[in-house]
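Summary for the steering committee. The consortium agreed at its last meeting that each partner would contribute one worked example illustrating the joint modelling workflow. Our contribution is presented below. We chose a case with several input lines so that the handling of multiple components could be demonstrated. No manual editing was applied between input and output; the record is shown as generated.
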Amino acid sequence: MSSRKAILKAIKKNKPELSPLPEMQTFRNDTVDKLAYLKEVFKIIGGVVEEITDTEALPEAIKKAYPDKENICSNIPGFPLTTVDLSAIEDPHDLKDVDLVVFNGKFVVAENGAVWLSERELIHRAAGFITQHMALIVNRNDMVWNMHEAYQKMQLDRPGYGVFVSGPSKTADIEQSLVIGAHGARSMTLYLVG
Amino acid sequence: MNHPTAAAIFNKDELRTEWHDKALWYVRNKRDLSAKSVPEWEELRNLAEAIKANVLSNLDNYLIEFEENAQRNGIKVHWAKDAAEHNKIVHGILEKKSVKKLVKSKSMLTEECHLNGYLEEQGIEVVDTDLGERIVQLAKEPPSHIVMPAIHKKKEDIGTLFHEKLGTEQGASDPQYLTEAARQHLRVNFLSADASLSGVNFAIAETGGIVVCTNEGNADLGINLAPVHIASMGIEKIIPKAEHLGVFLRLLARSATGQPITSFSSHFHGPKPGSEMHIVIVDNGRTEQLGREDFRKSLNCIRCGACMNTCPVYRRSGGHSYGYTVPGPIGSILSPGKDLKKYSTLPFASTLCGSCSDVCPVKIDIHTQLYKWRQIIAKEHQLPWSKRQAMKIAGYMFAHPKLYRFAGKAGRAMLRMMPRTLVYGPWNAWGKQRDLPEPPKESFRDWYIKNRKK
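What follows is the complete predicted structure of the assembly.
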């Protein structure tokens, strides 16, 4: 008997009586000030939130926050700070010297600061991880309260890839001391526009 | 070595035991604050429990559905009945691709299967990339905690280890400096690896994809660069639908470290262009556990580690004292199913205070299961002689009220009169690290007769 068959057979024999799936809830919260909550959460997750009403001012703001960055990638067509064209790169290993990525994200979750990026936004899956710093741009209207709403809103590409990014890469594996910048981005700034 | 013996060795260094206890209690506190910030926390736990109950009751069908959808996404699915088959499958994939170096993110399942040693014997270099995992790998130790693998090590220990293995400055122990050194060292490995391996936090039947959660971003850096990705998962990692992730991702990180969510929650639904993705579905004793009515709920576990952080025994005996891949309360109900004799002391490594069950995000009745394992162990004669005799004597005494009363009276009198050296001899396990309470003047029975029974 193949292992597949043996495992499935053993499960069938040993599993309990069918227990129904519970009805899902979304725990909506219409009274919470999502923006204020998000700002507090960002302090915990080690990121920075900047509000920018005029989209035109974005490149200047990013340049000011990240001066002297040489290799900059973006998924925004014609973004003026771009120096490395992501779509022209074939092997993701060639992204090893990227200093900063500037990505439009799909939406942000207020309860935990997570920004959803799918493969379409990232262009290369590795781009969001190999970079030294990360700037994400989300329209302030694209904010949901919690993860239940997030999964209602998004679409999982199949086949494909997507990631919730909540702050920079971090670790506390040495004596519980929080260190920002473990393997991935050393900083993460969320620009809320509109 | 059994748990009491290993714990006694750990306890010899009192300051270190104290430090370990506090480090984990700190994480437990963070978990409390985080859980309290979610008003619907208990409802989330109920939902998680109910979803898991449904999963276990329909696991075969969900696995078939998962396999079908994963294959549609271009993922190759393998099945392994035990650790040996899992290791063989992984090696087979790597061999076919002539892989010399494999980068790994955290996977307790591969620890359970002892994959690293197996692959190294076959001449493949295995690099663990989670910082804590890399620390214990360099130190040639197993992880002592499932979320914080190197929690038993002080920064000075890690400084010495890194000086020896990575060439950091002698005596340097600043966590920032050591983390940066590991970052540089591991970047080189990420960029030169031929394949990557990850664990699986959740596998979605409906969509045929997997979710991997990390704070460091090490799983993605490995997977998204290397041309081959292997994901190893136990059969119980299945969840029915993507919307259920809403429940589990809200619970997992808050329970584990008190964070609102991990830095990265990555959803893999197929290989990146030009690459391969494999999923190995592993049984290794899980179907047996599914058949044990009293213990199947242990398969709900989402490996957050909250039960370890809260456990007074774990905190003061360290993860290594358990001698099993998954230590702490959850490990103590998983391990006897694997080898009752070998792990017969683990269900006794508990005060049965029930704190583990209280913090468990998927509501496993951990302390009840510990108690049930104890009964099985006693029936199978796996109790040490001293405990068997003590139980026999206690049983006899409780069955004879007059004897019980006499013993109580005698005990109270003797405790008051006997010199300290006689009370705190090697026979007094309770008194090893603490003083006995002041003996009361009278028993509750005497007090009751005097005051109430009129």
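Chain B touches chain A through 95 residues (CB under 8 Å). The first strand of chain B starts at residue 76 and ends at 80.
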